[in-house]
Write a structure and sequence with these properties.
The complex is a heterodimer. Chain A is globular and about 45 Å long. Chain A contains 10 helices and 6 strands; from the N terminus they run E-H-E-H-E-H-E-H-E-H-E-H-H-H-H-H. In chain A, strands 2-1-3-4-5-6 form a 6-stranded parallel sheet, with helices on both faces. In chain A, helix 7 crosses helix 9 and helix 7 crosses helix 10. Chain A is of the alpha/beta class. In chain B, 65% of the residues lie in helices and 10% in strands. In chain B, helix 4 runs antiparallel to helix 6, helix 5 runs antiparallel to helix 6 and helix 8 packs antiparallel against helix 9. Chain B contains 16 helices and 9 strands. Chain B is an alpha+beta fold. In chain B, a hairpin with a 2-residue loop joins strand 6 and strand 7. Chain B is rod-shaped, with a radius of gyration of 45 Å. The chains are: A alpha/beta, B alpha+beta. Chains A and B meet through helix 1, helix 4 and helix 6 of A and helix 11, helix 12, helix 13 and helix 14 of B.
């Protein structure tokens, strides 16, 4: 296991925050600070320079978008700290704007996702490493929204499924496990997606992100 | 009783005829005396007399047409004073003494008549004082002059001497001093004050007042001319342009009573307009009532207010409470019926001088006013109901928001925390637990998970935070993103609508989209929101099976909500041809 990830957790619900902290510590991470407010979160990010901040979107005083604003500031001033936003409802627009600006080290999950303990811990790790994590429900919501024709129409249903999982932030191995197919099959799907979205010329990591962005933009 | 009235009328007519005869005879006698004893030309003598006759004529007409107005009798008195004044030129000592002593009172009466126009009363303090001063000067100085007049040539006359029956001690100097002082006081000081007061009255009057007071302008000019004439006559040895001045001023004096009387008749004309008001009002809608009254009373500034007994206030035609004028150039006439006040007229104070006119107009309009008041009362109630409806909607929205927040920050988080705790416990003790307990734990977690999800869906439908925070566009985007069918959203907003309208538009879209998903079996849906002409138009159209029931409780509730805001909701859903839900929501636009 890598050297313990350093995490701050911000959520105004004490019970839930402590549950998340317990979960992350059980998974071997070091929770360096907890906070119930956006201001407290920003202070502890400055103080501890954590690898990742797990942030509830709705926090005092207005219980509206404090988390999003805090995330904007963290990403601007402390790009080395990844941000995983948690929200009770899908508020895709502003969050996805943040994501499209710079997908690296960013995640957005519905809060219920914490109950999938392994998936959640994995998402925190992935984001901390500079990867992405987008809630499947958000992904499918964005997929359903699409009305204009685009290159995505050329994808087969299976390829679209794979791309959706890529958008959630999953690696090829994870996709293999999820779809019960061989790594080779996944790889050929991914390549086919790159071809259809005309992304073959790009470096591998980059085109993966570009594909996801194309997907999320519709 | 009819006979009594007839007899009184006959007596009155007889009286009037004898007044005319008396006036004519007096005038002719005066003419004769002027020609014989003053050696005036016949034309001049006749012109002087004509001034008296003009007052006689005008006074009689005014008196018969407006019996309640004292201006008629006042003008008649002036007429006889003017006619009698001519007798002062007689060589007969008694006539000379009587009418030299009292004759100038005629001038004071002329001034009094003018200032009493149009009501017949002098109400203003300054004007009253001026009238009294006029009488005093016109009486005291000539009488005093008679004490000293011993036959020496009087300033104003031919050289032939008269005999004063009041002579105490003859003094030519005293006579000259008194005469000149009187002219200066009367035609200098008092005339100047008089003109100033007329100008003041005209300046203070409203539009209606000015048209009524127009004859006063003539009066001002006449008095000025007369004053110049008297001063020139008195103070210059060889008066220049005296003849011209004489004819100008005497024409003015003759025209003056006719002008005053014409002014009174104008008000009389207004009265006949009031007479036709009853007929006119039968065809006048309540909104036209004020205009009709303003026309009938010839006061374009007239305001009409209605008494609302329930609220105990006067309101205007659209039901807004009105403050009644306490002072400051506006007058108030209340129109009552047996049950108390019905309405009130706020008008030019000049109308107070003709209370009968205003009352007649009020009486003519009473029925129409009562009807109009009922309508306005109804309107005011409707307004109140509409306002309370929209307050209820606003309160409901606020309540939804509060519930949403409470559930979100309270129950949802707790349930989730509980589920997480159970799941973590399960994980930590995996394998060491009784399989039955493990199964129970798993079941509990999954139940809690469902509960959280259900709560989330429930609260989201209540009042989306996104709407309050970021407005319609973001909320609709998020809404359509959650729909399992593709939704095309087109939005054209000029400015952000106020929260109530915004919420209504959102709920229309949300309810319509929910129905589409549940019932329509549609392939595509479009949501179009446009802001135009103070209306927020929402249209949700799908290509589904149609046949939607607009009376479904969801849409019915929405229609209520939108109608409370003064808008409308229409569902067009022919079987097989898709469904279109259209809403129009009035919006004022919010500064947010």
């Amino acid at each position: 296991m890598d050297s313990a990830l350093r995490v701050v957790v911000a959520d105004d619900s004490v019970l839930l925050r402590e549950g998340i902290v317990r979960l992350l510590e059980d998974a071997g991470m070091e929770v360096v600070a907890q906070s119930a407010t956006a201001d407290g979160l920003l202070r502890s990010v400055v103080a501890h320079r954590p690898d990742v901040a797990v942030v509830d979107i709705r926090m005092p005083p207005t219980h509206t978008d404090e988390g999003i604003r805090a995330a904007e500031q963290i990403r601007q001033r402390h790009p080395e700290t990844a941000v995983l936003l948690l929200s009770q409802v899908i508020e895709a627009q502003r969050v996805m704007a943040l994501f499209q600006e710079r997908p690296e080290g960013f995640g957005y999950l519905l809060k219920d996702r914490v109950l999938e303990l392994d998936d959640f811990v994995e998402a925190v790790r992935r984001v901390a490493r500079g990867g992405t994590a987008i809630d499947p429900e958000v992904v499918s919501a964005l997929m359903g929204r699409r009305t204009e024709p685009s290159a995505l129409d050329d994808l087969t249903p299976r390829e679209r499924e794979v791309l959706g999982l890529m958008a959630e932030g999953r690696s090829n191995q994870a996709i293999c496990r999820k779809l019960f197919v061989s790594p080779k099959t996944v790889e050929s799907h991914v390549n086919s997606i790159f071809v259809k979205l005309r992304l073959l010329a790009e470096p591998d990591d980059h085109r993966r992100v570009l594909a996801v962005l194309a997907f999320l933009r519709g | 009783m009819c006979d009594d009235l007839g007899r009184r009328d006959r007596l009155l007519n007889l009286f009037r005829i004898s007044l005319i005869l008396l006036g004519v005879v007096l005038g002719l006698v005066g003419c004769r005396i002027q020609v014989d004893h003053l050696h005036s030309t016949a034309a001049r003598a006749l012109a002087q007399t004509a001034a008296g006759w003009a007052f006689l004529l005008a006074g009689l007409v005014a008196w018969s047409r407006r019996p309640a107005n004292r201006l008629g009798p006042l003008m008649l008195a002036t007429a006889f004073a003017l006619l009698l004044r001519q007798l002062r030129y007689s060589h007969d000592p008694a006539l000379f003494t009587a009418f030299f002593g009292l004759g100038d009172v005629a001038f004071a009466l002329v001034g009094h008549s003018i200032l009493a126009y149009p009501s017949g009363r002098v109400t203003d303090g300054a004007e009253r004082m001026l009238v009294v001063a006029g009488y005093a000067v016109a009486f005291c100085f000539p009488v005093a002059t008679l004490f000293f007049y011993d036959g020496s040539p009087l300033l104003l006359y031919d050289p032939s001497p008269r005999e004063s029956l009041l002579l105490v001690r003859g003094s030519e100097n005293a006579v000259e001093l008194l005469q000149k002082t009187q002219i200066v006081l009367f035609f200098g000081v008092l005339a100047a004050l008089f003109i100033a007061l007329i100008v003041r009255r005209l300046a203070r009057a409203g539009p209606r007042g000015r048209s009524v007071l127009a004859p006063l302008l003539l009066a001002g000019v006449v008095i000025a001319l007369r004053a110049v004439f008297e001063c020139v006559f008195t103070f210059f040895d060889r008066p220049f342009a005296l003849d011209t001045l004489f004819w100008w001023q005497i024409s003015g004096v003759i025209a003056l009573p006719l002008g005053l009387q014409a002014g009174l008749l104008r008000a009389r004309l207004a009265r006949s307009r009031v007479g036709s008001l009853v007929l006119e009002l039968e065809r006048t809608p309540p909104q036209g009532l004020r205009d009709a009254l303003a026309r009938a009373l010839d006061d374009p500034t007239l305001e009409l207010v209605f008494w609302l007994p329930e609220r105990g206030v006067f309101v205007d035609a659209v039901g807004t409470p009105v403050d009644l004028p306490s002072e400051g150039g506006r007058a108030l006439t209340r129109l009552d019926d047996e049950g108390g006040p019905v309405a009130a007229l706020i008008h030019d104070p000049i109308l107070l001088e003709e209370p009968q006119l205003v009352e007649a107009a009020g009486a003519a309009a009473r029925l129409a006013l009562a009807n109009a008041r009922l309508q306005i009362e109804l309107q005011a109630q409707l307004l109140a109901v509409r306002e309370s409806r929209s307050r209820i909607v606003a309160a409901t929205d606020e309540e939804r928001r509060r519930i949403e927040r409470d559930l979100h920050d309270g129950a949802q988080q707790r349930l989730l925390a509980l589920a997480l705790a159970l799941r973590t416990a399960e994980r930590r003790h995996h394998g060491s637990l009784d399989p039955e307990v493990e199964q129970l734990l798993a079941g509990a977690v999954s139940e809690l998970q469902d509960a959280v999800r259900e709560l989330r869906d429930l609260t989201h439908g209540f009042h989306p935070t996104l709407l309050a925070e970021q407005g319609l566009e973001a909320a609709l985007a998020s809404l359509s993103a959650r729909m399992p069918v593709p939704v095309e959203v087109r939005l054209q907003l000029v400015e952000r609508p106020e929260p109530q309208a915004e919420a209504a538009a959102y709920f229309v879209a949300a309810e319509a989209l929910t129905n589409v998903v549940k019932h329509a079996g549609a392939g595509t849906v479009s949501v179009v929101v446009e802001q135009r002409d103070g209306l927020l138009r929402v249209e949700v159209a799908d290509d589904g099976i149609g046949g939607a029931d607009s009376r479904g409780s969801g849409l019915r509730g929405l229609a209520d909500r939108i109608e409370a805001l003064g808008g409308s909701l229409v569902v067009d859903s022919p079987a097989g041809l898709g469904t279109i839900v259209r809403a129009q929501i009035p919006t004022r636009g919010a500064a947010a």
